[in-house]
Amino acid sequence: MAQALFTPPLRWDWQGFSLAYCQSPGPRGGHTPQVLLVHGFGANRQHWRHTLDSLSAAADVWAIDLLGFGASSKPRSQLDGEAEQPGAVRYGFDLWAEQLFAFCETVIARQAPGAPLHLVGNSIGAVVCLNTARLLLERGRTPAGLVLIDCAQRTLDDKRAAQLPLWEQATRPLVKQLVRRRWLLAALFRSLARPPFIRQVLLRAYPTGANVDDALVQLLHGPSTEAGALESFRGFVNLFNDHLAPELLARLCELAPELPVRLLWGEADPWEDPEEARRWAADYPCIRELVVLHGLGHCPHDEAPEQVNPILMRWMTGTA
Q: What is the pLDDT of residues 50-61, one digit of tens each?
């Protein structure tokens, strides 16, 4: 297990906030590939506990806590229509992409100028990686590759509302009003952020049950007890009109059709249907490969690292 993940994190100041990250250095010399790992909702850099050391055999590997998660700052959320408050942020995929863009430019690029950069994200982290790649391309830098692991399909976004069952469409306006209220979300958050409930969700997300251990429960539960944890939860559950993966994939194909995007999916993911991933692979030529792993769920990199790490290594080293 990667020691760098469980020592005090490295710190980087961005826009007045403290961001936590770690690095597992790879081989020295030449243009060693740089790999940035981005966690999903409710997780943090430690969710790459079985990935960091494996990939560092061939690359410098970085893992970062998105703003609002893990050991990073957790500022107050500001929703559309709310008065601006000092220090409050609009949580969403543009904020997180700006964070990663700045990290790539001010931390990774300064340590390894000109080195190829690979972005790897799980769940909402995959959408963040897509949006970060868009920013990099629009600002004159081309990533070496992009890996989306069980990318969030964001079925509750307004742009997909017509696909919801009629009863969900009918109750949607009320739900959208309720989830803005901190008092209601605080009660919900307290009921969800308990170790027994976290373990129950993990057993659904990891159908084989592999690697659902006390360390995993703790790495997810610990940050939820910190001041401000409710705010990123509030910001995220109110993301009803934000980026969707197909829109970002279309933009990447337009900006850099040669950019290799690869998809890795758990066949038994209870939330992100692999059939949609297959449609993406058929529709967007920048997607070079889709690997669907039998029996695995939403976080295959942690559930079955012995299967996932060799695939990531093959993609990172360009032997695909």
A: 999 999 999 999
